[in-house]
């Protein structure tokens, strides 16, 4: 059957290159090129952007990104078995696909790509959260990327977009929502993947804000949020004890009840508290 880019269907690619999925590398492949094109479209107009794709595997999403007009794609894949299949895609799209065989945690996209950069990936579950946290905590802000369009396990996606009072609300929500606008764009059942994972997956689209949503020192915010959510059942006056000489008074001054729990405090409240603790204007 002909495909949009003239390359073989992904099932044939996998058979031809012996790409049996490895659990240790989080390999759950998307084989439906209509679906991978749809995911590529969730990243918006790619014609004026370079794209970083982590974990292209046999290249379904890579083909979607190129077919949807990505200016250039840098695909970083740890599994060397996938390289011949990816080279075939590069040959079909001359000058538009660069492939690196390596660990995405060790690659500096700026050494290969020109901003604006969009990051689009069906992430391996074992390093997905770590990569997201790195992208959200660069040394300087705004970051090198404009947007992230990332497939996670649905449970992780829900933690990224959670609001105060949700069971999933915690550090990841605060980190993501402080510096970006995250939204779940698509949820897929296990059967959409080969082999099917145990759980549903969701694509989260995060657009970088030009500046953090509320002023706060990143290290202080991270410290108090970590302390608050590490003991999420405790009242803040006790979970944050030790971060200021009279924590109850600092909480009161920030307009937060000392008896409140971490999951009740919105992003603005956490940032206000971070400013008070860092000795700012409050
Ligand atoms: N993009 C493909 C798709 O949608 O069908 C494959 C997605 S699969 C969920 C994750 C991919 O990430 C696998 O190809 C795996 O080999 C690769 N991978 C795992 N750990 C990696 C790492 N640290 N750096 C780069 N790629 C990695």
From TrEMBL:
Broadest EC class assigned to this enzyme: transferase
Entry annotated with the keyword Cytoplasm: yes
Pfam families assigned to the protein according to its UniProt record, in alphabetical order: RrnaAD
Residues that coordinate or bind S-adenosyl-L-methionine: 28, 30, 55, 77, 103, 122
GO cellular component terms given for this protein: cytosol
Catalytic activity, reaction form: adenosine(1518)/adenosine(1519) in 16S rRNA + 4 S-adenosyl-L-methionine = N(6)-dimethyladenosine(1518)/N(6)-dimethyladenosine(1519) in 16S rRNA + 4 S-adenosyl-L-homocysteine + 4 H(+)
CDD domains: AdoMet_MTases
UniProt xrefs under InterPro entries: KsgA/Erm (IPR001737), rRNA_Ade_diMease-like_C (IPR023165), rRNA_Ade_Mease_Trfase_CS (IPR020596), rRNA_Ade_methylase_Trfase_N (IPR020598), rRNA_adenine_dimethylase (IPR011530), SAM-dependent_MTases_sf (IPR029063)
Ribosomal RNA adenine methylase transferase N-terminal domain: residues covered: 35-210
UniProt KW GTP-binding keyword: no
Keywords assigned by UniProt, alphabetized: Cytoplasm, Methyltransferase, RNA-binding, rRNA processing, S-adenosyl-L-methionine, Transferase
Family of the protein in this entry: Belongs to the class I-like SAM-binding methyltransferase superfamily. rRNA adenine N(6)-methyltransferase family. RsmA subfamily.
Role according to the record: Specifically dimethylates two adjacent adenosines (A1518 and A1519) in the loop of a conserved hairpin near the 3'-end of 16S rRNA in the 30S particle. May play a critical role in biogenesis of 30S subunits.
Protein name in the entry: Ribosomal RNA small subunit methyltransferase A
């Amino acid at each position: 059957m002909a495909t949009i880019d003239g390359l073989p269907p992904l099932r044939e690619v996998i058979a031809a290159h012996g790409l049996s999925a490895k659990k240790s590398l989080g390999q759950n492949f998307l084989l439906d090129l209509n679906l991978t094109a749809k995911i590529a479209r969730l990243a918006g107009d790619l014609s004026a952007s370079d794209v970083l794709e982590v974990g292209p595997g046999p290249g379904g999403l890579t083909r979607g990104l190129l077919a949807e007009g990505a200016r250039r794609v840098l695909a970083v894949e740890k599994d060397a078995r996938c390289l011949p299949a990816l080279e075939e895609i590069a040959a079909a799209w001359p000058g538009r696909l660069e492939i690196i065989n390596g660990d995405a945690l060790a690659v500096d996209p700026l050494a290969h790509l020109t901003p604006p950069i969009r990051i689009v990936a069906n992430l391996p579950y074992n390093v997905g959260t770590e990569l997201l946290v790195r992208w959200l905590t660069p040394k300087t802000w705004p970051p090198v990327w404009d947007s992230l369009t990332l497939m996670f396990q649905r449970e992780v996606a829900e933690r990224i977009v959670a609001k105060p009072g949700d069971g999933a609300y915690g550090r990841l929500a605060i980190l993501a929502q402080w510096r970006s606008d995250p939204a779940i764009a698509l949820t897929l059942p296990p059967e959409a993947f080969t082999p099917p994972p145990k759980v549903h997956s969701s694509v989260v689209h995060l657009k970088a804000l030009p500046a953090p949503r509320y002023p706060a020192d990143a290290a202080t915010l991270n410290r108090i949020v970590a302390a608050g959510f590490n003991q999420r059942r405790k009242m803040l006056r006790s979970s944050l004890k030790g971060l200021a000489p009279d924590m109850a008074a600092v909480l009161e001054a920030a307009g937060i009840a000392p008896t409140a729990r971490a999951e009740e405090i919105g992003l603005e409240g956490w940032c206000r508290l971070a400013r008070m603790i860092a000795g700012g204007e409050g």
